[in-house]
Amino acid sequence: MRFLFAFSAFLTGIAAAALFAVSGLHVTLEQQWREAIHEWSPREASGQVHVVEIDAASLAAVNRWPWPRQHYANVVKRLDEAGVRSIAFDIDFSSPSAAGDDAAFAAALERAKTPVYLPTFSQAASANDRRALEALPIEPLRRSVSLASVMMRPDADGFVRSLPMGAVTGDMPRPSLAAASSGANGAVDEIFALDLSVDPATIPRHSFVKIERGRFDPDELRGKDVIIGATAIELFDRYPVPLHGVIPGAVVQALGVETLLAGRFVEIGWILPLAFAALISVWILGAQTSALAAARGGTIIVSLMVAGFCLQAVSRIAADIVPALVCVIAVTGMIIARHLHHDFQHRRLYDPGTDLQNRRAFVQRPGIDEERLTIAMALDNYEALRAVLGEDGSDTLIRRMADRVTEYDASVCIFRVEERVLAWTVSALGYDPDQELAKLAKLLRAPMYIDNRAVDTDLTFGVASKDALNEAIHAARVAATQKRTVSFHADTEQENMERRVSLLGELEGAIEREELQVWFQPQLDLGSNEIASVEALVRWQHPTRGFLAPGHFIPLAEKSNRIDSLTIYVLRKSIDALMAWCDEGIVLRAAVNISARLLSSRSFIREIEQLVSTSGIPRDRLVFEITESATLDDPEESTAALHRLRALGIAISIDDYGTGQSSLSYLKTMPLSELKIDRSFVQHAHKEVSDAMLVRSTIQLAHELGLTVVAEGVEHAECLEFLRSAGCDIAQGYLIGKPMTFDDIRTITAEYSRKVA
C-alpha cells in the first residue's frame, strides 16, 4: 500500500508539472525567476557599445524637431574620423526632409568608411487599421548603408524582455540593429532574451551635440559600436524593461548588443529540468517522516534553484525550472500529507507514552468471525509505582509488561485501554483462563528492572466476552477487591464453562477417530551440528472450528482426566514415526510430554510399559518430558513412577526448568537424563546479562550432575552462538525449525547432514 501511494504521488507530481507547463501557467513565474537571477548577478556593460544620445541638451542646442539632417551628416563624419567600428541609427528616416539636408546626409553616408546601419520597422496604419506599414529610410539614404530592424516586441504585460534577431521589411530579410552591430547571426523572427543583469547606467553615453561639435575624446570611441538614438523624454522613445524601469529605445538596443556580444542564452525549455527533478524526487518517496520529506523536498528545491542560477548567471543557459519545482512540491506535499495523516491516525489510536494501541483502537479493531474472550490486566499498584518511577518510568514498565505478554503468546495484540490497564483478546475455543492467566501472572510478577530499580507488580485479570471491554476491566477490579488473580464477568464465566464441556466431548471423539495430528519440532545437537532429536507436539484441525492450538484443549484434558488417552495416542504416533525413520536409516530421538497427573496412575504406567515393550523400538530413542512442577504434588509417587519408566531404558527430561518451585534436591533424587531450560530465560540470554548468568549456571550445574542440557526458544543466530559458547548440548526453537510433519523432518535432517558433510 505504501509503495502504491508513493508511486501514485510520483506520477501525480510529474503530471501536475507537465500540465502546468503545457498550459503556459509557468511563463510569468519563469520570467520573474529569470529576472531575479539577473538582479542577483549584476554586471557592468562591456564598454564596447556606446550610445550617442539626442538628449535634452542637444534638443536645446538645435532648438527644433525634427532636426535638419545636416546634423546627422556631421555626426557620421565625426564618428567615422574617430575610427568607430560601426554606426547604427535608431531614428526614423522614412520621410524626406529638406532636399539639401537629405543630400548632405546621403553624401556623408557615402563617404563614411565605417559600416552604417539605418533603421527599418513596421507599424500599424492607424488606430482603426491594423495593417502593418513598413517604414524604410528614403531611397537616397539607402544607397551606401545597410538596413537593420529596430522592431521591439513587448510581452503581454508591456515589458520588453527580448528582441528579434531579424525581420522582413521591403520583402527583404533584415538583421536587427542588435544583430547587425554585434555581428551575430540568426534567423528572421528568431528572438533572444535580453541580459538584464547588465546595468544600463554603465553603458557609455555621449551627448549628440558634443559629438557634432567635436567636444569628445576620439580614443574613447575608437573601435566601438555606436548607437545613435533619442533619450530625451520629450521624444517619447522609451520602453519599460524589467528591473530597469522605463528606458530609451536606443539603450534597449544597446542592451541587445551587449547580450549578443556576451553570447545568447541557450534555451533548454522545461522537459529536461522536469525529467531531472522527477528522477531525484524518488529520494523524497523514501522519507519515513513528514519532517524528513520536507527536508528532502526543500533540499531538492534549493538545489534546482541554485543549479538554475548557476546555469543562467555563469553558463548562460536558460532553463525553465518552474515545472520541475512544481513536480518536487507536488511530490513532497503528497508525501507530507500522507505522513501527517498517518501521524494523526497514530495519535488517535496509540498511547503516546508506550506507543501501544489505545482504547479507541481496541473499539475500532477489525472484526473476527470466531468466539473470543477479552482479557483486561490491571496493575493494581500503579499509582505507587508511578510515584517512585515517574511518568517515563511507569510508561517503560507498562511497555515491558506488554512485551512479556507477547513473549508468552505472540498471537495477541496488546492495547493500553487505561493508564493502569492492558487489554487483549484470545480465542475462546479451548482456552482455560484460570490456568493460562495464572502462568502469565507468574511470568509478569518476576521482578523487572526500571532505571536500575527492581520493580514488583501487583496484577489482577478480568475476563469477559469478545467486545465487553468495560466488563473485563470491571472484572479485574473485582478480582483485586476479592484478592484473586482472575475474575470473570458473570455471563462470560457461564459461556466459558459451556465451551469447555462442548470441546471436551469433541476431543474424546477426535482421539477415537484419530483426527489429531502429531507434528515434530527438530532439536539440534550443538556438538555435531546435526538434527539429533525431535519433540512430539499434538495438533488438532477441528472440522468446524479450524486449527486449535494445544493450549486450547490439553489443559482441559488434564482437568477432566482425559489426558491419559491423549498421551498414549501421541506416544503411539511418535513410536510409529521413529520406526519409520529407523527403516530409512535416520537415527533420531523423540521427546513426548507426560502430564504430572499421569505419574501417579499405575494403569497408565503399565500401559506405557506394554506399548514400549511390544513396539520393538530401541528404548533409548524415547524421551519423556516432565514439567518441573510435576514432582511437587506427590514427590514419592512421582519418583517411583519415573524410576519405573527409566528402568525401561526411556530417558527422563525435566521440562521448563527455572519456572517452577522445586528444590534443587529434586535434580539429585529424580532419575533424570536431561534438563530443559525454559524459553523465557533462553531467548534473550545473548543480550540480557541476568538471563545469560542463569543459563550458564544451569548448564554448569546440569553437567556436574551428568545431565544433558536442552535450551528451547532459540530464535536468533546470536542466541545460538551464545549457547555454543556456554557449552549447551541441544538447541530447540524457530531458528532451527518450527513444528513440522513427518516428511519435513526427513528433509531437514538431510539438509543438516549435508551441511556437516
TrEMBL record:
Domain (EAL): residue spans on this chain: 500-753
PROSITE patterns hit by this protein: EAL
Keyword Transmembrane helix in annotation: yes
TM regions (residue ranges): 268-286, 293-315, 321-340
Pfam family of the protein (one): CHASE2
Keywords: Membrane, Transmembrane, Transmembrane helix
SMART domains: CHASE2, EAL
Membrane found in the keyword field: yes
Protein name: EAL domain-containing protein
